[in-house]
Amino acid sequence: IIKVLYRGARILILDEPTAVLVPQEVEELFRNLRELKARGHTILFIDHKLEEVLAIADTVTVLRQGRTVATVDPSQVTAPELAELMVGSELPTPSTEPRAAEDHTTLRLHNVSMVDEAGRTVLDGVDFEVRRGEILGVAGVEGNGQGELIEAILGLRDVQQDGRITLDGEDLTTWPVRRRREAGIGYIPEDRQRRGLLLDAPLWENVMLGHQTTAPFARGPLLDRLGARGAATRIVDDFDVRTPGIDTSARALSGGNQQKLVVGREMAAAPRLLVAAHPTRGIDVGAQAAVWEDLRTARRDGLAVLLVSADLEELIGLADRLVVMLRGRVVAELDPATTTPRDLGGYMTGAGGPGAGSEGVGDL
Length: 364
Fold this sequence. Notes:
Elements: H1 2-6, E1 11-15, H2 23-38, E2 42-46, H3 50-56, E3 60-64, E4 67-72, H4 79-87, E5 105-115, E6 121-131, E7 135-139, H5 146-154, E8 164-167, E9 170-171, H6 177-182, E10 185-188, H7 192-196, H8 203-206, E11 218-219, E12 222-223, H9 225-238, H10 255-268, E13 273-277, H11 285-300, E14 304-308, H12 312-318, E15 321-326, E16 329-334, H13 341-349
Parallel strand pairs: 1-2, 7-14, 7-15, 10-13, 13-14
Antiparallel strand pairs: 3-4, 5-6, 5-8, 8-9, 11-12, 15-16
C-alpha cells in the first residue's frame, strides 16, 4: 500500500488484503483505509470475509459466476443475506465435531532447530506431537518459521544435529524426501501452482506427482500409464474436480478445482500424516467447503493432520489443538474451544493473551 501511494496512485485495488493479518492488524489497516478515503482516494476492497466487508465498505457489489447479482448499502444488509447473494445459501463454516484423539503419536518433533544460509536461526528448539485422528493447527504471522517447519518435516531442508523427527516412532530425521513420501507423508503445498502441479501437463500425470514410485502409478521401475489414468478418473469423481476429462491440462482448471485435485491426490494415497499448508487460500467458497470436509473426513478416518494456516477462523474451527509460532519457536499451546481470533492474534504478535505466560513451551 505504501508503494502504490508513493507512486501517486489515487485508486487502490486491494484483493484479500487481510488474508495474513491478525485482528489487531486488520483494525489498523481499516483505520488507514478510512484516512485514505477522507483524503479522496478511491478503494476497491475485494474480500470474502463478510463482516470485514460490512465494516469497511460504503457500498457492496456482489459477484457470482462473473456476473453482478446485487449492489447494496452495507447498513441495510446482514452477513447471512450477503452470503445468500454470493452462493445461494449460508456460507460454510470451518467447524468440526468433538472427537477424542487416539493416544498413538503419529508425528513427533523434539528439539528441532534450523539455521538459514545466512546463519540466522529460523527454527529454535521446536517440540510438539500430532496424534492419530487429530488436527493440530499451527498459527503464526507469516515468516515466523512455519515454512521452515514444513520443509523440515518433508526433508526439504536439514535440521541441526540434535533435533529429531519421528513418524510412528521411527526416526526419519535423515531420510530423503522420497523415502518420507513413500512412508506415508502427504503434502498439500501453500502454492498449488508452483509446488503442487505441472500446469501444462494433463491431470492424469499430475496425480502421480510425489507418488510416482508406488502403485498404481508404477509397475516395477516403469510408470504405469493405465494405472495413473484410472487413479486420475477416481480422484476426479471422488473429489468433484470439475473438468472435461483427465487429459485436460491443470492450467485449464479454476483455482478451486486445482486445489481439489491436489487434495484428492494426497488423500487417495492413504497417508499416515497429512501436512496441509494454507489449504483454502485463494479458492472460492464452494471449493473451500469441500476442502474443509475432506480434512474433517481425514480426521474421522484416523489420519494425523498438521494444519498450517493464516486464516484464524479456519484454525479455530477445524483444529483439536493449536500451537503458536513466533520467531521460530513454539510459544503457546491453546484450546480452540476457548480461544478467540483476537486471543490468537495476541500470541502471534507477541502481545500475549488471556493468561499470557501460563501456557507455553513447557506445557507441550
